[in-house]
Amino acid sequence: MPDLRLGVLGYGLRGSIARTAHRPGAGARVTALADHDARARAEAAPAFPGARISTDHRRVVEDPDVDAVLVLTPDHTHADLAREALKAGKPVFVEKPLAVDIESCDNVLRTARETGTRLYVGHNMRHMPVVRLMRDIIRRGEIGAVKTIWVRHFVGYGGDWYFKDWHAEQRCTNGLLLQKAAHDIDVLHWLADGYTEQVQALGDLMVYGDNPHRRAPGEPKTDDWYTKDGHWPPHTQRGLNPVIDVEDVSLVNMRLDNGVLAAYQQCHFTPDYWRNYTVIGDAGRLENFGDGPGGAVRVWNSRRSGYRAEPDAEYRVPTRKDSAGHGGADPLLIDEFVRFARDGGLTDTSPVAARMSVAAGVRATESLRTGGTPRAVPPLDAELAAYFERGQTG
């Protein structure tokens, strides 16, 4: 079978998705790419030999030698670009979050249905080994019926990754409860088998807002904008984005439509970088210790006790041969998209779930910016939801 020819929009931090997808002779290859940034175009040229590189996304979307489109641009551009590609009849991969507001999400889903063009959203954490392991444990009934979920997200490199470019601006992301938390809200929904219907949140810009070391408008990021071992403690960060108006810490309470209660906490100035999930059912609980290779998910379910470090069962997080890209999730994500773009059918990722994670994040952001007042999360139109739940057919 010939390679699926991919057009790429955007070659920034998620350019890794395009590189993962580029497998000449093995299923897919990048044939065209557009980015406004000259440096990004220069880096893309050797990564994709022979690909047509341009500044205009329309040259990619309209290219007859492009079979499907990857939208990897900043968040606030996702919806419009996705709709253009869908209208052009090209299956679309949209990096999460689907959009930065609820109406735009719904417009993308309606466009996919009206055109009959396949839509896929890149919620790669559904393919992460630790998430699959937790879901398997829940499905086996080891903790009974899920009743509450607590998620703590320690974003150790938050200053590097989210406060030195467009991620730090509300106009581009709305807030990090969309940009960053969309992953975890989606996973939380998947593990609980329900969607958020009410949120209440608090948050603040506690650390990076007071840092005066900003780049001048239009000045590019420094070459050492990210280092694995440096930039600690957080106040030593330099070259931050000229505008910073998103929160660097947030706390969200959620009530799901199936009665599950959940909590999500995110902090961008911790020394460590990982996610901790605690899922409690009516017959036990599980918790992950580490979220990548070498980590474990532990289960307590045999008896009541005081503090007990030793679990009743421990499951090691599987290690894939290709563990790059979120513990090996990115290659699996691309495998699923390529198959879906060619053949259609059901996928582990879900446009409906992607919309609901954005909806929960939007309403939570509204809550934390209005003193923590509760907000209702609007459901997706039932007929539109049914279309996607059938695998985008009928």
Mean pLDDT over the full residue set: 96
- Going by CATH, the homologous superfamily of the domain at 122-394 would be Dihydrodipicolinate Reductase, domain 2
Which outline best applies? globular
Distance between the termini: 27 Å
Q: Tell me the fraction of residues in β-strands, as a range.
A: 15-25%
CATH topology of the domain at 122-394: Dihydrodipicolinate Reductase, domain 2
Point out poorly predicted stretches.
none
Sheet with most strands: 9 strands, mixed
Helix-strand category? alpha/beta
Query: So what's the CATH class of the domain at 122-394?
Result: Alpha Beta
Order of helices and strands: EHEHEHEHEHEHEHHHHEEEEEEEHHEH
- Number of strand elements: 15
Specify Rg, calculated over alpha carbons.
21 Å
Number of helices: 13
CATH architecture of the domain at 122-394: 2-Layer Sandwich
Helix content: 25-40%
Protein name: Gfo/Idh/MocA family oxidoreductase
Domain Gfo/Idh/MocA-like oxidoreductase C-terminal: 136-372
Domain Gfo/Idh/MocA-like oxidoreductase N-terminal: 5-123
Family: Belongs to the Gfo/Idh/MocA family.
Task: Kindly describe this structure.
The structure is a single chain. By secondary structure, this protein is of the alpha/beta class. It has 13 helices and 15 strands.
Concise synopsis of the structure shown:
It is built from 13 helices and 15 strands. By secondary structure, the chain is of the alpha/beta class.
